[in-house]
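Below is our example:

___
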Amino acid sequence: MMLHQSPLSRHLAVPVSFLAVVLASAQVRPEPTSPLITQPIDESKRVELPGNTRPEANPDNDRGMVPDSLPMEHMQLQLRLPMEKEEELDNLLQKIQDPSSPNYHKWLTPEEFKKQFSLAREDIETITNWLKSQGFTVNVVNARSVDFSGTAGQVRYVFRTAIHYFDVRGVRHIANLSNPQIPAALAPAVAGIVSLNDFKPHPINRAR
């Protein structure tokens, strides 16, 4: 299956093009990803993940905390690559969209993308083991994210943010009240958490 996506989507779980010519060459091989997590996890040393709240999750719309037992399914822990891998990915994206490049529209399969542009295996193991140790269920590990599930109570305890009900234009939603926190040791490899709310994105263009 070949997936085509724009450069704007590269920070999600992004499959991109396969450099058939480059990877077929015996002289060129993808460089392994360097580990980013180098310190032991200390739960007392935490950092906030900025930009991980919704503007609608404000005091005017707040209708109180949800029950701790509320299921939170398919949350996404967004991962970040080392700078050199981000630069390699940017360069790849430019080449596959440049008609003058010999690699124009040479698409990577999802598995090939995951192999070339994922975190180091040690980092993935550290992150997934930490999530499991906190009682979460790890569903799927993608190239740029970890899909996991749990409850609102676990989110409040582990990420130090409460999930509340919010009334927005007569519609009830749930969302995190503040930016989540994670152990500082994980911060070099974690960009944020997606799906701590049930707001759905709206299309920019609407059909007439």
